[in-house]
Amino acid sequence: MIVHRGCAIxxxxxxxxxxxxxxxxxxxxxxxxxxxxxxxxxxxxxxIRFKKVGKRVLAGKSIATVESAKWVxxxxxxxxxxxxxxxxxxxxxDILIANRDPxxxxxxxxxxxxxxxxxxVGLLTDDAAVAAYKIRIDELKMSCIRCAD
Length: 149
Prior knowledge:
This protein has one domain (about 1-140): CATH 2.40.50.100. The protein has four helices and eleven strands; from the N terminus they run βββββαβββββααβα. It has helices spanning about 35-40, 90-95, 95-100, 125-140, and strands at about 1-5, 5-10, 15, 20-25, 30-35, 45-50, 55, 60-70, 70-75, 80-85, 110-115. Strands 3-4-5-11-10-7 form a six-stranded antiparallel β-sheet. A hairpin with a 3-residue loop joins strand 8 and strand 9.
């Protein structure tokens, strides 16, 4: 894992840097969540509305809508697919789970891409993701912090 200005950029994930979304491909399923940059920029999460399991999502359309201390808006899917699971139980238990642990416990949704072969296209990994995030973090002049109680 690389940490730049306090912002964690874990290895082994694919990133939609502009959307501040991480994706972990697990066979033909993609687990998605907000990055450390996203959770810092939005501040403490207040509520989240998930797309229902079984719903189809199109690239660029939302898998969930988040309301936070600083922001209200969608979390966009980077590819077409079907929502097969949401992490609503974890968020119901602790609304700040994505603020505290964005890459593990705070995942948002599992989506089955329509085309698992092309789903990663446009996402950045490894050195390319780290380089792009370093630039984004520096341009935003930010340092990441995690929420505490």
